[in-house]
Amino acid sequence: MRPKVIAGNWKLNKDVGESEKLITELKAALKFPLEKTRVIICPPFTSLALARKLIEGTVIELGAQNMYIEDEGAFTGEISPKMLRSVGCTYVIVGHSERRQFFKETNELVNKKAKKALVSGLLPIICVGETLEEREKNITDQIVSVQVKSCLKDLSSSDMEKVIIAYEPVWAIGTGKNATPQQAQEVHQLIRKLVGQLYSWVVAEKVFIQYGGSVKPDNALELLKQPDIDGALVGGACLKADSFTSIIEAAVRSSQN
Ligand code: PGA
Fold first, then answer.
1. How far is the CA of 39 from the centre of ligand 1 (A)?
2. Are 226 and 184 in contact (CB under 8 A)?
3. pLDDT tens digits along 32-65
4. Are strands 37-42 and 164-167 parallel, antiparallel or unpaired?
5. Is the pLDDT of residue 248 over 90?
6. What is the percentage of the chain residues whose pLDDT exceeds 70?
7. For the whole model, what pTM was predicted?
8. Mean pLDDT calculated for residue range 72-100
9. How far is the CA of 25 from the centre of ligand 1 (A)?
10. Residues enclosing ligand 1, CB less than 6 A?
11. Which of 83, 46, 43 is nearest to 63 (CA)?
């Protein structure tokens, strides 16, 4: 059985002092055995160095929220995968819907970022998901399939073992309105089937598919119990140590059943 992967996407939240407080509280709260569960935090760039120090010797792993596709050069304001590696990141989120919406990132750019992350030794968390309008038009499967195919273009089978796909319906992000476990499971199953067609069933069985969109302590267990939901990408609820810890506990419990 695949372990569960719980990642906290802090977004544009927490300055250095606030980051220190949150990580310290999280470490204190995570004293239970994390069987078959991995925990990742993705603070803003400005807190990564501090986070690396604070999580040393713990099971918490480090991720970034974005990266650029070059190692260095005249790209004002951007951060390279090499820099992220040097600050201790293992993971990087690419193609989050907020990047697509506010910074006009396309599937093509997300694909370039995923490939660059992999050659640079980072494990990409590739986000896909439909808008409310697309769901209401009944084109969710079509939209998600195009996103998955485009974002995974030219990735090898061995790359796929390092990739996490995050299914995040845009209408569920930050709205308090999560997809039901059944709605999420349906799309996760579709994504796994698609990976099976593009690669092989062996690869599809290994790939991690996280759900994201208003995951909270009170809905996490039911979502995580679904056979094709391998974890969660958590926004709002990761900003408080107790709610993030409850979601991690739900992941541990979901693997026990
Ligand atoms: P949310 O965000 O949990 O606040 O809905 C999830 C995400 O954007 O990754």
1. 16
2. yes
3. 788 899 999 999 999 999 999 999 999 999 999 9
4. unpaired
5. yes
6. 100
7. 0.97
8. 98
9. 21
10. 9, 168, 173-174, 212-215, 233-237
11. 43
Q: What ligand 1 atom has the least distance to the C-alpha of 173?
A: 5
- Polymer length of the chain: 257
Residue 148 class from Cβ within 10 Å (0-12 exposed, 13-18 middle, 19+ buried)? buried
Backbone angles phi, psi at 6, to 5 degrees: -110, 120
Ligand 1 atom 2: residue of nearest CA: 235
Q: Which amino acid is at 27?
A: K
pLDDT at 32: 79
What would the mean pLDDT of 200-226 be, rounded to a whole number? Answer: 97
Rounded Cα distance, 32 and 229, in Å: 22
Residues near 69 by beta carbon (within 8 Å), at least 6 away in sequence: 109, 112, 113, 116
User: Helix or strand or coil: residue 177?
Assistant: coil
Kindly state the tokens that stand for 230.
């391998």
How far is it between the farthest Cα atoms of the chain? 52
Question: Between the CA of residue 230 and those of 46, 49, 59, 122, 133, what are the distances in Å?
Answer: 29, 28, 18, 19, 26
C-alpha distances in Å from residue 103, one per residue of 71, 110, 114: 20, 12, 17
Cα separation values, 255 from 35, 140, 226, 230, 243, Å: 8, 28, 10, 10, 19
Q: Please give the number of the atom of ligand 1 that sits closest to the Cα of 11.
A: 8
How far apart, in whole angstroms, are the C-alpha atoms of residue 29 and residue 242?
7
Upper half-sphere CA count for residue 80 (Cβ side, 13 Å): 12
Category of 94 on φ-ψ map: left (φ > 0), alpha (ψ -120 to 50) or beta? beta
Phi and psi of 210, rounded to 5°?
A: -95, 150
